[in-house]
Amino acid sequence: MPQTHVIFYQEDENIAPVWDWLAQLRGENRDAFNKCWKAIALLETMGHELRRPHADILRDGIYELRIKFLQVNYRILYFFDGRTAAVLACSFTKETKIPPVELNRAIARKNKYVEDREAHTFKGRKQ
User: Fold this and answer.
1) How far does the chain reach from its first CA to its final CA, in angstroms?
2) Which of 65, 94, 114, 122 could serve as 8's disulfide partner, Cβ 3.0–4.6 Å?
3) Is the pTM above the cut of 0.85?
4) What are the residues whose beta carbons fall under 8 Å from the beta carbon of 120, sequence distance 6 or more?
5) Are 74 and 36 in contact (CB under 8 A)?
6) What is the CATH number of domain 5-115?
7) Which of 17-21, 49-53, 63-67, 121-125 has the lowest mean pLDDT?
8) Exposed e or buried b per residue across 65-95, where buried means at least 16 C-beta atoms within 10 angstroms of its C-beta
Protein backbone atom coordinates (compact mmCIF):
# COMPACT_ATOMS: atom_id res chain seq x y z
CA MET A 1 0.00 0.00 0.00
CA PRO A 2 1.57 3.32 -1.05
CA GLN A 3 1.87 6.07 1.50
CA THR A 4 -0.91 8.66 1.37
CA HIS A 5 0.16 12.22 0.77
CA VAL A 6 -1.60 14.53 3.24
CA ILE A 7 -2.57 17.95 1.91
CA PHE A 8 -3.84 20.89 3.92
CA TYR A 9 -6.77 22.59 2.23
CA GLN A 10 -6.17 26.29 1.54
CA GLU A 11 -9.20 28.60 1.49
CA ASP A 12 -7.40 31.63 0.10
CA GLU A 13 -3.71 32.34 -0.27
CA ASN A 14 -2.04 31.72 3.10
CA ILE A 15 -5.30 30.72 4.85
CA ALA A 16 -5.25 27.02 5.70
CA PRO A 17 -7.95 26.32 8.31
CA VAL A 18 -6.68 22.98 9.64
CA TRP A 19 -3.05 24.15 9.66
CA ASP A 20 -4.07 27.27 11.60
CA TRP A 21 -6.24 25.25 14.01
CA LEU A 22 -3.32 22.92 14.72
CA ALA A 23 -0.99 25.89 15.31
CA GLN A 24 -3.45 27.33 17.81
CA LEU A 25 -3.89 23.94 19.51
CA ARG A 26 -0.11 23.59 19.75
CA GLY A 27 0.03 26.83 21.73
CA GLU A 28 -2.89 25.91 23.97
CA ASN A 29 -2.34 22.20 24.59
CA ARG A 30 0.87 20.66 23.30
CA ASP A 31 -0.13 17.11 24.31
CA ALA A 32 -3.43 17.32 22.41
CA PHE A 33 -1.56 18.77 19.42
CA ASN A 34 0.90 15.85 19.50
CA LYS A 35 -1.95 13.35 19.58
CA CYS A 36 -3.63 15.06 16.59
CA TRP A 37 -0.34 15.10 14.68
CA LYS A 38 0.13 11.36 15.36
CA ALA A 39 -3.36 10.72 13.98
CA ILE A 40 -2.44 12.64 10.81
CA ALA A 41 0.70 10.51 10.53
CA LEU A 42 -1.45 7.38 10.87
CA LEU A 43 -3.70 8.64 8.06
CA GLU A 44 -0.57 9.21 5.97
CA THR A 45 0.54 5.62 6.60
CA MET A 46 -2.80 3.83 6.26
CA GLY A 47 -4.80 6.06 3.89
CA HIS A 48 -8.01 4.40 2.68
CA GLU A 49 -7.41 1.47 5.03
CA LEU A 50 -7.79 3.58 8.20
CA ARG A 51 -10.95 2.62 10.10
CA ARG A 52 -12.61 3.01 13.51
CA PRO A 53 -11.67 3.91 16.11
CA HIS A 54 -9.26 6.23 14.27
CA ALA A 55 -11.44 7.24 11.32
CA ASP A 56 -14.97 6.95 10.02
CA ILE A 57 -16.83 7.88 6.85
CA LEU A 58 -19.56 10.51 7.24
CA ARG A 59 -21.19 11.26 3.87
CA ASP A 60 -20.47 12.60 0.39
CA GLY A 61 -16.91 11.30 0.52
CA ILE A 62 -16.10 13.13 3.77
CA TYR A 63 -14.29 11.21 6.51
CA GLU A 64 -13.49 12.12 10.07
CA LEU A 65 -10.16 11.60 11.76
CA ARG A 66 -11.11 10.80 15.35
CA ILE A 67 -8.79 11.92 18.14
CA LYS A 68 -9.57 11.72 21.84
CA PHE A 69 -7.33 13.30 24.43
CA LEU A 70 -8.41 13.17 28.04
CA GLN A 71 -12.14 13.97 27.86
CA VAL A 72 -12.00 16.03 24.66
CA ASN A 73 -12.93 14.74 21.19
CA TYR A 74 -10.98 16.40 18.39
CA ARG A 75 -12.08 15.91 14.81
CA ILE A 76 -10.42 16.62 11.49
CA LEU A 77 -12.62 16.20 8.44
CA TYR A 78 -10.91 15.10 5.24
CA PHE A 79 -11.54 13.65 1.81
CA PHE A 80 -9.49 11.70 -0.67
CA ASP A 81 -8.21 12.94 -4.00
CA GLY A 82 -7.62 9.70 -5.83
CA ARG A 83 -5.86 6.82 -4.12
CA THR A 84 -2.81 8.59 -2.73
CA ALA A 85 -3.87 11.99 -1.35
CA ALA A 86 -5.97 12.96 1.65
CA VAL A 87 -7.02 16.61 1.96
CA LEU A 88 -7.56 17.95 5.49
CA ALA A 89 -10.55 20.28 5.14
CA CYS A 90 -12.00 21.15 8.59
CA SER A 91 -11.17 20.71 12.26
CA PHE A 92 -12.96 21.30 15.53
CA THR A 93 -13.63 20.03 19.03
CA LYS A 94 -16.66 17.76 19.05
CA GLU A 95 -19.39 17.78 21.67
CA THR A 96 -21.90 14.99 21.02
CA LYS A 97 -22.18 14.81 17.23
CA ILE A 98 -20.63 16.35 14.14
CA PRO A 99 -22.11 19.83 13.72
CA PRO A 100 -23.94 19.98 10.34
CA VAL A 101 -22.25 23.32 9.61
CA GLU A 102 -18.82 21.65 9.80
CA LEU A 103 -19.85 18.77 7.55
CA ASN A 104 -21.35 21.18 5.03
CA ARG A 105 -18.19 23.30 5.17
CA ALA A 106 -16.06 20.22 4.43
CA ILE A 107 -18.27 19.29 1.47
CA ALA A 108 -18.06 22.85 0.09
CA ARG A 109 -14.27 22.82 0.47
CA LYS A 110 -14.07 19.46 -1.29
CA ASN A 111 -16.02 20.91 -4.22
CA LYS A 112 -13.76 23.98 -4.38
CA TYR A 113 -10.66 21.80 -4.22
CA VAL A 114 -11.85 19.57 -7.06
CA GLU A 115 -12.54 22.66 -9.20
CA ASP A 116 -9.04 24.09 -8.65
CA ARG A 117 -6.57 21.83 -6.85
CA GLU A 118 -3.64 24.22 -7.28
CA ALA A 119 -5.42 27.20 -5.71
CA HIS A 120 -6.62 25.15 -2.73
CA THR A 121 -3.43 23.27 -1.85
CA PHE A 122 -1.54 24.84 1.05
CA LYS A 123 2.18 25.11 0.35
CA GLY A 124 3.24 26.90 3.52
CA ARG A 125 3.40 30.50 4.61
CA LYS A 126 5.04 33.04 2.36
CA GLN A 127 7.46 35.30 4.15
Assistant:
1) 36
2) 122
3) yes
4) 9, 10, 11, 109, 112, 113
5) yes
6) 3.30.2310
7) 121-125
8) bbbeeeeeebbbbbbbbeeebbbbbbbbebe
